[in-house]
């Protein structure tokens, strides 16, 4: 089975087209004001409409309230909602009931084996679990901030869970990450940027090509 690729934090048509042309399976848009990748609703609406039919569109949110979610779903209408904060299992049940036709993703921050205990709480409530590095101490936003975690922690997980690997990935290390974790999907944001929030089209293409090369190796 091929490795799926998500390019996250897109904010321009040029970089979105680079991701789509290179074969990205998922394209992500960040709705979190503290992030350098935050995208306004109107721009996101245009970008998501442009990507529809070419890739699965994903809205990344962090502990959103209902008015914010309703605005995103009503105007942007992404295919999936990726929750990247401290959202509880009960909250995700409510999200599923409110938007039954939308995929629900949950990012879990990982630093040690103990952190994998969260998986049992969320697996049955989500369409996709995404493993990311824990943020640095004192950080004001979630995510790995371009850092990876110990990938060997995932070595014994069943790849059929379909988890997505994130955190510190880039064109140079994504192949090793896939080989070590047997991840069936990978997600990148800062690893394909020239500056925080500024996507690099060459790095986007290189990242997707590197992930696809592992797929070709598996097929041999």
From TrEMBL:
Alphabetized UniProt keyword annotations: Amino-acid biosynthesis, Aromatic amino acid biosynthesis, Isomerase, Tryptophan biosynthesis
InterPro entries registered for this protein in UniProt: Aldolase_TIM, PRAI_dom, RibuloseP-bd_barrel, TrpF_fam
EC number, as in UniProt: 5.3.1.24
All copies of domain N-(5'phosphoribosyl) anthranilate isomerase (PRAI), residue ranges: 5-209
UniProt keyword annotation of Isomerase present: yes
Keyword hit for Magnesium: no
GO molecular-function term, one example from the UniProt record: phosphoribosylanthranilate isomerase activity
CDD domains noted in UniProt: PRAI (cd00405)
Pathway recorded for this protein: Amino-acid biosynthesis; L-tryptophan biosynthesis; L-tryptophan from chorismate: step 3/5
Catalyzed reaction equations: N-(5-phospho-beta-D-ribosyl)anthranilate = 1-(2-carboxyphenylamino)-1-deoxy-D-ribulose 5-phosphate
Family membership noted in the UniProt record: Belongs to the TrpF family.
Protein name per its UniProtKB record: N-(5'-phosphoribosyl)anthranilate isomerase
């Amino acid at each position: 089975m091929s490795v799926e690729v998500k390019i996250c934090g897109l904010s321009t048509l040029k970089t979105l087209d680079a991701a789509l042309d290179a074969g990205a399976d998922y394209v992500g848009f960040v709705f979190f004001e503290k992030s350098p990748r935050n995208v306004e609703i109107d721009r996101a609406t245009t970008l998501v409409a442009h990507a529809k039919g070419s890739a699965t569109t994903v809205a990344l949110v962090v502990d959103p309230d209902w008015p914010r979610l309703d605005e995103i779903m009503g105007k942007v209408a992404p295919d999936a909602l990726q929750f990247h904060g401290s959202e509880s299992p009960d909250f995700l049940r409510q999200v599923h009931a409110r938007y039954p036709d939308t995929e629900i993703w949950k990012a879990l921050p990982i630093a040690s084996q103990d952190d994998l205990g969260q998986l049992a709480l969320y697996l049955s409530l989500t369409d996709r679990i995404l493993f990311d590095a824990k943020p640095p101490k004192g950080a004001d936003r979630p995510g790995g901030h371009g850092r990876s975690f110990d990938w060997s922690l995932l070595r014994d997980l069943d790849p059929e869970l379909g988890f997505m690997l994130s955190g510190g990935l880039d064109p140079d290390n994504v192949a090793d990450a896939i080989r070590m974790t047997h991840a069936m999907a990978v997600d990148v944001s800062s690893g394909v940027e020239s500056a925080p929030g500024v996507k690099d089209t060459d790095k986007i293409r290189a990242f997707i090509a590197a992930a696809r090369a592992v797929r070709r190796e598996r097929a041999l």
